[in-house]
């Protein structure tokens, strides 16, 4: 197709609407029927079509709703045109026909030229055969609870030909089956609306976005925008690389055991309105500490606020089974963040078999999340790794079977392992406590201890006893431990803390004792200038 825009219409009033969207340089092509105009767009004979959808005097044009689904077109604009077929209607300012501008190409991008323009999103949804009651109420509630304004709802008979959102096949035995067409104020890039659509996709068997589009624009603006939409290039799914999402650090403190402070979380999200997600590691690597159920609820309370309802939570819970109890302390329990009220629909739970199942080398993990997250993740994985290795798959299945057997019997699967780790934990805590000026978060989970060595390296120049080696930072200290004593620890700079250091006690008791001796001796021998 050439550069000239072509827009299809049916009838005299529709031609006026078509001319609202494009200037005289475009071709307005007449068709005998509205359906023929829609088919022309689908077959790429024209770029766009105008579709009358409702009249202020006669109501909705019901059959035209069916054409939106039949031809798989997208709504990219709308226009309320004053009816003028008679002098009476010309004088009556309340007589209008609403036209939709349809395109085969979906484009949800916002340009600078549309800044400040109000937007509307049109969608259609339906339910599968179910004895569940109140499904329509549940579906509409996803909008009301997010303060989203519905401007129209229309029902149409459903012949069942529309593909199911979840890819399921089922026999619908209902005598009366309907699809529901809805218009809601806002653009799909709006965080609240995006969250509502994710939730709606869980409730409904079928959901389709018909379009997010401007409700009012000048003819010149629309012409420029439509011209930008006429390209014939085929565009696949955009995969945004990590450098497009710079991390926003949320500083935690030793005094709070490196746990998330809900007030600081709210401040950080407020000052970074473009934030899309938070990463929650609970139990924590590198600190070896645990957010209690009560603490998690405080975090969830922040995320339930209207301005943060778009935030997704990536919850790393791979250490969930590695918890320790201390006499006189409240029992420590792990709670999955997705189980908190309102958090299921926005949580991606990351877990695996490397820790509690000791399958580190097999590199098998899993993601649990609502289907609207899993589907694109599956596409991404298919391009990156295809699937886990065969040995890992078999081992993971057996591990899960054994896990379920223990759960059925009410037994803890790794009791002896945890006793062994707890012995090492208590030993390392005792040794670290005896070292002057070494501060650390008391470990309650996983198998890490995170130290604060700022007393040794902040604003100081440290040297080995013979002054042959300068240790100007914790990174230098860790490197010297490795080179001189074959002790491997991780500097805190790897985790955003220049004075921190992580120790793992997932090793033999002999190795841990050697590490503690070497670290203590080196700290004692340091000289400062």
UniProtKB/TrEMBL annotation:
Organism this protein belongs to: Phytophthora nicotianae (strain INRA-310)
GO MF annotations in UniProt: prephenate dehydratase activity; pyridoxal phosphate binding; transaminase activity
Domain annotation Prephenate dehydratase: ranges: 3-186
Known cofactor(s): pyridoxal 5'-phosphate
SUPFAM superfamilies in alphabetical order: ACT-like, Periplasmic binding protein-like II, PLP-dependent transferases
Biological processes per GO annotation: L-phenylalanine biosynthetic process
Name the record gives this protein: Prephenate dehydratase domain-containing protein
CDD domains per UniProt: AAT_like (cd00609), ACT_CM-PDT (cd04905)
Chain spans, region Disordered: 225-244
Family according to the record: Belongs to the class-I pyridoxal-phosphate-dependent aminotransferase family.
Keywords recorded for this protein, A-Z: Aminotransferase, Pyridoxal phosphate, Transferase
């Amino acid at each position: 197709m050439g550069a000239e825009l072509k827009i299809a219409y049916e009838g005299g009033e529709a031609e006026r609407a078509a001319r609202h969207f494009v200037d005289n340089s475009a071709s307005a092509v007449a068709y005998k029927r509205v359906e023929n105009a829609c088919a022309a767009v689908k077959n790429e004979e024209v770029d766009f079509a105008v579709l009358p959808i409702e009249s202020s005097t006669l109501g909705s044009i019901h059959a035209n709703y069916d054409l939106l689904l039949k031809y798989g077109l997208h709504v990219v604009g709308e226009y309320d045109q004053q009816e003028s077929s008679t002098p009476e209607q010309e004088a009556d300012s309340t007589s209008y026909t609403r036209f939709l501008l349809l395109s085969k190409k979906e484009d949800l991008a916002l340009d600078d030229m549309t800044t400040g323009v109000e937007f509307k999103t049109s969608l259609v949804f339906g339910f599968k055969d179910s004895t569940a009651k109140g499904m329509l109420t549940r579906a509409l509630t996803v909008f009301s609870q997010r303060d989203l304004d519905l401007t129209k709802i229309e029902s149409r008979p459903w012949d069942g030909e529309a593909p199911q959102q979840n890819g399921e096949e089922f026999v619908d035995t209902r005598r009366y089956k309907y699809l529901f067409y809805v218009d809601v104020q806002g653009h799909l890039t709006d965080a609240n609306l995006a969250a509502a659509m994710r939730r709606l996709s869980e409730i409904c068997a079928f959901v389709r976005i018909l379009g997010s589009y401007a409700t009012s624009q000048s003819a010149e603006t629309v012409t420029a925008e439509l011209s930008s939409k006429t390209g014939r290039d085929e565009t696949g799914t955009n995969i945004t690389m990590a450098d497009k999402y710079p991390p926003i650090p949320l500083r935690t403190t030793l005094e709070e055991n490196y746990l998330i402070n809900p007030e600081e979380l709210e401040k950080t999200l407020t000052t970074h309105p473009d934030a899309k997600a938070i990463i929650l590691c609970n139990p924590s690597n590198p600190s070896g500490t645990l957010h209690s159920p009560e603490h998690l609820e405080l975090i969830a309370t922040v995320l339930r606020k209207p301005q943060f309802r778009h935030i997704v939570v990536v919850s790393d819970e791979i250490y969930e089974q590695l918890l320790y109890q201390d006499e006189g302390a409240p029992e420590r329990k792990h709670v999955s963040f997705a189980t908190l009220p309102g958090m299921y629909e926005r949580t991606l739970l990351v877990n695996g078999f490397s820790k509690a199942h000791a399958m580190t080398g097999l590199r098998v993990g899993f993601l649990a999340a609502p289907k609207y997250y899993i589907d694109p993740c599956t596409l991404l994985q298919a391009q990156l790794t295809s699937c886990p290795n065969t040995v890992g798959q078999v081992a993971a299945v057996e591990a899960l079977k054994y896990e379920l057997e223990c759960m059925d019997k009410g037994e803890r699967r790794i009791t002896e392992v945890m006793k062994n780790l707890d012995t090492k934990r208590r030993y390392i805590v005792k040794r670290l406590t005896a070292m002057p000026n070494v501060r650390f978060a008391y470990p309650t989970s996983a198998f890490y201890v995170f130290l604060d060595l700022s007393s040794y390296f902040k604003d100081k120049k440290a040297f080995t006893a013979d002054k042959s080696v300068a240790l100007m930072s914790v990174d230098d200290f860790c490197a010297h431990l490795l080179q001189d004593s074959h002790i491997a620890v991780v500097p805190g700079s790897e985790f955003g803390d220049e004075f921190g250091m992580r120790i793992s006690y997932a090793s033999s008791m002999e190795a841990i004792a050697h590490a503690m001796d070497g670290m203590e001796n080196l700290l004692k021998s340091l000289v400062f200038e």
